[in-house]
From TrEMBL:
Protein name: AraC family transcriptional regulator
Organism: Leptospira jelokensis
SUPFAM superfamilies: Homeodomain-like (SSF46689)
GO MF annotation terms: DNA-binding transcription factor activity; sequence-specific DNA binding
Stored Pfam families: HTH_18 (PF12833)
């Protein structure tokens, strides 16, 4: 059984099934936690905060497996809290490793003892406790200091066009930002860590997953998110998440979704 909580700035996944994730890479900061077992993980770039708590930076190639239930937290890499966690980990600043709040959060999530509307506040408390901080200052908000303002404009345009199902050409983005194509391509990759086309595909993937979680079929979700066909969607999903989407979403009775607005 998989349970998902979907928020504009994060996704929680409580997974009870023994799923094997092959090599993949996605544009989200991922935190893995298991109270009972350490993860078997291979990556070119991870931070093992604790044997039961792993931080995987966005765009990092990795694969992992675990036999017991676990919690996966996907954070928007533009968010304030994601940047703080990555900075702490990279600088090897000591985290609060008592993990008592994290464990309590895990138990409440796994037993569905938290109302979806209260999850953002609880998650915020857990992550700030990990950072030994107490003042939130909208930790899920966008960190405006991490990228060039012109790149932020591009991200907004790509996401907007993605929702409308209209691909936006790099030349249009360059014109909107008053940049040459060469300069935009370089600046975008430098700030975001992936090319423009890859980010556009990531936006489409998020849309398709939202449709799947709303119990749409894989075929319909693929077309609603403007993939060329279901095969294109499935291949892209496996590259990003290391698993075929059918293993999670084929049977609607095996997953549950809560949308947090």
């Amino acid at each position: 059984m998989s349970i998902f909580w979907i928020h504009p700035s994060f996704v929680l996944q409580y997974e009870k099934r023994n799923l094997q994730y092959g090599t993949h890479s996605h544009h989200a900061v991922q935190i893995l936690f298991s109270p009972n077992e350490s993860f078997k993980i291979t990556s070119n770039h991870i931070f093992e905060i604790h044997k039961q708590l792993i931080v995987i930076p966005h765009n990092s190639i990795h694969k992992f497996s675990i036999k017991n239930p676990y919690l996966s937290i996907y954070l928007d890499p533009k968010s304030i809290v994601a940047n703080k966690i990555l900075n702490y980990a990279a600088a090897r600043i000591d985290f609060n490793l008592k993990l008592s709040k994290f464990l309590k959060f895990y138990k409440d999530i796994s037993s569905k003892q938290i109302s979806p509307k209260n999850i953002p506040k609880r998650l915020e408390e857990v992550l700030l406790d990990l950072l030994n901080e107490s003042n939130s200052q909208n930790c899920f908000g966008t960190n405006k200091n991490i990228m060039d303002e012109r790149v932020s404009i591009c991200l907004d345009l790509i996401e907007r066009y993605s929702y409308q199902g209209e691909p936006i050409k790099p030349s249009q983005l360059a014109k909107s930002c008053n940049l040459s194509m060469f300069r935009l391509v370089h600046l975008f990759s430098e700030n975001v860590g992936i090319p423009i086309r890859t980010y556009a595909l990531w936006c489409k993937m998020r849309n398709a997953i939202s449709f799947l979680m709303s119990k749409e079929s894989m075929l319909d979700s693929s077309y609603l998110a403007y993939f060329s066909d279901q095969s294109h969607f499935s291949r892209s999903f496996k590259r990003m998440f290391g698993i075929n989407p059918s293993e999670i979403f084929q049977d609607p009775s095996k997953f549950e979704t809560f949308f947090i607005l």
